[in-house]
Design brief:
By secondary structure, the protein is of the alpha/beta class. 38% of the residues lie in helices and 9% in strands. It has 9 helices and 6 strands; from the N terminus they run βαααααβαβαβαββα. The protein has helices at 45-57, 65-72, 77-87, 94-113, 123-130, 144-154, 177-190, 206-214, 243-249, and strands spanning 32-35, 136-139, 162-164, 199-203, 218-222, 236-238. Strands 3-2-1-4-5-6 form a 6-stranded parallel β-sheet, sandwiched between helices. Helix 1 packs across helix 4 and helix 3 packs across helix 4 (94-113). The protein is globular. 44% of the residues are buried.
Length: 264
């Protein structure tokens, strides 16, 4: 367990048994923090754009950067390909669909192998600070291998107790299913009862922000993929995840620098 116990300031001794999920009276908000991945933790959207462009070009579809950022941020690969083929009036057989997904994954693997990604400004410091006081999780439309590879590459894998990836849900983003699953799994991992209202979701996609707010989450938008004015549905908006900027926006957030990650 990291210093600061990760339960909103309440000691793990208040929890009852390995299987119990306990509601802690007076638990402070947020009790947990759930991150999106692409465009929030890692500057990986340009990689996804290039990978989509390469695969789609071979199938007679041209994808501009403007179209990608306007229409595809928030989709997983499956949703993005379905959307684009429908937009272009092209049939998409199950066999062709699987080939597209495999080609996109292989292309991303090639890009990641040469280290074409980095943590976004402030992220490393923020994650390390937050992990001293909160259980952290990731909910992403990216493939698990992509998330794991890039997290290891930027040195942050051990700070996240739960990762929910594209393979873990039946309905991808912007549907809130992934964040609801993340909340449940983090509850089980931390052995404390978490509801959507207890969590802060950090996102960059307006469509996802709207859907998770409707599901009961409070949201912090980071203006990496969209301008701040496009993120007005969020409860809070920041330009970057620099720790002090986030704390100024959300005074309830408690930072504690220099702590080691929990292995729990």
């Amino acid at each position: 367990m990291i210093a600061g116990d990760g339960f909103g300031g309440y000691a793990a001794a208040t929890l009852l048994g390995d299987a119990a999920l306990v509601t802690v009276p007076g638990m402070s908000w947020p009790a947990a923090i759930l991150f999106d991945f692409d465009g929030v933790i890692v500057n990986s959207e340009p990689l996804h754009l290039r990978a989509f462009q390469e695969v789609l070009r071979q199938n007679g579809i041209s994808l501009s950067a403007d179209e990608y950022y306007r229409e595809l941020i928030g989709f997983d690969d499956q949703g993005a390909f379905r959307h684009l083929f429908a937009q272009h009036g092209k049939p998409l057989s199950p066999e062709a669909f699987q080939k597209l997904l495999a080609a996109k994954a292989a292309t991303m693997n090639r890009f990641m192998a040469v280290g074409s990604f980095s943590a976004l400004p402030g992220v490393k410091e923020l994650v390390i600070d937050l992990a001293a006081n909160y259980p952290l999780a990731i909910c992403s439309g990216a493939l698990r291998h992509e998330i794991e590879t890039m997290l290891q590459g930027i040195g942050l894998r051990d700070y996240f107790r739960i990762i929910v990836a594209a393979e873990d849900v039946t309905i991808g983003k912007p549907n809130p299913q992934g964040y609801l699953l993340t909340t449940r799994l983090l509850s089980e991992k931390a052995r404390i009862k978490l509801r959507p209202a207890d969590c802060l979701v950090i996102e960059d996609a307006p469509t996802v922000i709207r859907s998770v707010k409707a599901a009961g989450f409070r949201t912090l938008a980071v203006a990496t993929s969209y301008p701040a004015e496009a993120l007005s549905d969020a409860d809070y908006v920041v330009q970057t995840l620099e720790p002090l900027a986030m704390q100024a926006m959300i005074p309830e957030i408690r930072l504690a620098a220099g702590k080691a990650p929990s292995k729990a």
